[in-house]
Write a structure and sequence with these properties.
The structure is a homotrimer of 226-residue chains. By secondary structure, chain A is mostly helical. Chain A is 72% helix and 0% strand. The first copy, chain A, is built from nine helices and no strands. In chain A, 54% of the residues are buried. The longest helix of chain A is centred in the first third of the chain and has 30 residues. Chains in contact: A-B, A-C, B-C. Chains A, B, C: It holds the Pfam family Gly_transporter.
């Protein structure tokens, strides 16, 4: 009974996150002038690659995103909507960023739960939760031959990791799964939202061998505050 | 008995497709000035990455391409031939495009068959058949840090999907596997051939925020390049 | 007993190689101006992606690099050290190249051993050993949207392949595993070291359709009837 309930919760979380992530994939694909097929591939990849990578790594094959048609349908819907109404999606930029933060939280906690269910140790389960959250965006960027934005800027993965840590710690001390899941997703969302509003960033190291034209603003990163 | 026959058919299809796809990988690698090892890696990747991805996703590990040395040998042969006779392969550009269309059809139906055999639902089996067909070329392009051509131009993946759909539908209504396989591969080949001859393309969306130099129309670049 | 000993040997080899490879990932990430998180991801990827790919392909999931926290800890340590002391690591460039050659040998033989243990045939086991050695560096380069250096220059993968071949052949003729492992790693290290010192390179093919600036020697492709 409880198993079943957990499963339904995980499915609902996953599908919601998939839709908003797929929007980001479709938007990026349109900007790079992909054709309709390319845009739909980017939608599916951005929405599902994180979860697929997680499932392949923990041995849950075929991955959930391929075992049913739900994830595909949700991804294609996001892609088609974006393709025919890119201006509309663009006007929704700020709401989409909000939803993206929510999707990040949902994916991180759902991915962590699943990795724990498959017997991974807590530290790696949290990392796989983070991978679930950031893997789609990384795949989207790599398909477009861009260095993944998550590796360069912003507090994004750390927010996912914080949410995942809540799930792992809550599970270790046997708190109720539902409460822990909600708390983890909420923490991730809040961190991501604050990071966006305040422009929080991680430090960048000084390159001992800078290229020809060192940008002057590169000087300010002393690597001190997190 | 029938199982065995099916297995032999799948193997023959796979190896034929592997060779022509490996040619495309080797050609691309030589154009990017890879060394001999790089060219052989590109040959193997272009010929096998689609099938390997499919096998990892459906849980058929080790993937067929790694379980025997056949696929490796066929890929290396294609790579070596291309490496020492690039001009010869280049002169065969049109035949190679034809063989590539044939390989696409073979991979799509073989991949769909295998996914069905592993119990995937029909919609996702067709998608995995398509992935089998396009995965090698995508990996080839990504290794060379190019946005996969299949996401940008031409009717390519859709032809594979149409062939895969024939297999899935034929299997659902219990038509003979051989007939269905041939019909699917033929449909894919025909669609791809027509798309090349007539320059069929998928639509590209209007970008709501075009970059600095907005092109008034879609770039007419590189239709049908391998 | 012997199983246990083998396992400990493999673990020690893997962790040593992981650290030096992670250094290369962190250094590359810093050069591309990734933030701290990005540098740590590159460290982990460069140190572990080869082994993870091998484990996924042979069905050893969750991969060893995710089953314990050892690999993560070693990778993060390398990343953090490089991040806060990039100048120090840079001064150690030559030692690091030496350690990288040692890591390559260790990974190649350990990867080959593991693939043999999982029942792969000798040829493909050697290839998977090579993949273990070069997969991390390839992933590092692809994350930074560069054509993997291993495909373009130097004798690197071939050295790994030679070491892997020693393990495969030694195993086939039932020589003691320890001796074979050491001999394979030593051969790989020696080849890689010589290749670095003497600038050994693999041939690059003539491109039949050179880009804008055709080198004069590209002209010689005349007589190749296929």
């Amino acid at each position: 009974m409880k198993e079943h309930w957990m499963g339904t919760l995980l499915l609902a979380l996953d599908l919601s996150g998939t839709f908003v992530f797929a929007l980001s994939g479709a938007t990026a694909g349109i900007k790079k002038r992909l054709d309709l097929f390319g845009v739909l591939v980017l939608s599916f990849a951005a929405g599902n690659a994180g979860g697929i990578a997680r499932d392949v790594l923990i041995g849950a094959v075929p991955p959930a995103a391929l075992a049913t048609w739900y994830y595909l349908a949700v991804s294609l819907l996001a892609g088609v909507v974006t393709f025919w109404r890119p201006a509309g999606i663009d006007r929704l930029r700020n709401p989409v960023l909000l939803f993206d933060a929510a999707g990040l939280g949902l994916f991180a906690v759902a991915g962590t739960q699943k990795a724990l269910n498959f017997g991974l140790n807590p530290v790696m389960a949290a990392l796989l939760g983070m991978l679930t959250g950031i893997g789609g965006g990384m795949t989207r960027d790599l398909f477009l031959t861009e260095v993944p934005i998550v590796l360069r800027a912003d507090i994004y993965a750390l927010a996912a990791l914080a949410g995942a840590a809540v799930v792992v710690i809550g599970s270790a001390v046997r708190l109720p799964a539902t409460a822990v899941t909600i708390a983890g997703a909420a923490l991730c969302f809040a961190l991501r939202y604050l990071a966006m509003c305040r422009g929080w960033r991680l430090p960048v190291a000084d390159d001992p061998q800078p290229p020809k034209t060192p940008a002057p603003k590169d000087r300010k990163d002393d690597g001190g505050s997190l």
